[in-house]
Amino acid sequence: MGKVEREERLVALAEAATAVFGRVGYRRARTADVAKEAGMSSGSLFNYVESKEALFHLVFLHGFGLLAGAVLELPLAAPADGETARLIEENLRGIPTPNLRAAMTRDRPVDVDLELRGIIEERYAIQERLWPILAVVERCAVDLPTIEDFYFRRTRVGYFGRLTKYLERRAATGHLRKVPDPAVAARLVSESISWFAWHRHEGREGRAHLYDDDVTRETVIELLCAALIEPSS
To answer: What is the pLDDT of residue 42?
Structure first.
């Protein structure tokens, strides 16, 4: 088998593993199911990874763009204890949110419409790009306490806290609409984005094909901005 073909099959395996782990979680996922999803035999799978742990690690190497160009010895060995969790944490922490962070440094916006749109757009882009591996993280976190703690108790909580604080500050200056609970508003923004950028693609309702990606993105952004911006601003 040539180098190019081997790399292509490794990518196909990573994508199949992403789909299976993201659908059923870590404990319920079987290497046989991943092999079937990838269109290969169970025996062939072990030419690429030596274990389920290695297969799980492969998901994130591929999902974070670290597989392309990497020199890997196959079959990929099982990672050291905690290595996959560290890989996930480092790369999720490294996702930039420059629009939200920049807004938090300003007392007053030059143009709140553009500022808010930029914040929503960057969140949508992250979810749209990374949803397959975010689905793996969420489905598998219940089986993997280290990931559960980092993702749900720190990463998500931290983002919601920053967004809540932003909404509070802009409402206090009259640029955004005052609402009874800014934390609820922050959650509404995030969950609306998550469904349209992410969950509709998971196939549970079979509705992803009903929505054009570009039109969907623009509609969500327009409606969220209209709901939050004070009409008089």
So the answer is: 93
Would you give the end-to-end CA distance of the chain in angstroms?
Answer: 63
Cβ neighbours for 139, distance < 8 A, ≥ 6 positions apart: 21, 22, 23, 24, 25, 26
Q: Which region, left, alpha or beta, applies to residue 96 given φ > 0 means left and ψ of -120 to 50 means alpha?
A: beta
* Structure token pair of residue 13: 């395996």
> Mean pLDDT score of the chain, rounded to an integer?
94
Residue 52: CB atoms within 10 A of its CB come to: 18
CATH class of 3-79: mainly alpha
Domain positions in the chain? 3-79, 88-228
* pTM greater than the 0.85 cutoff: yes
Report the CATH fold assignment for 88-228: Tetracycline Repressor; domain 2 (1.10.357)
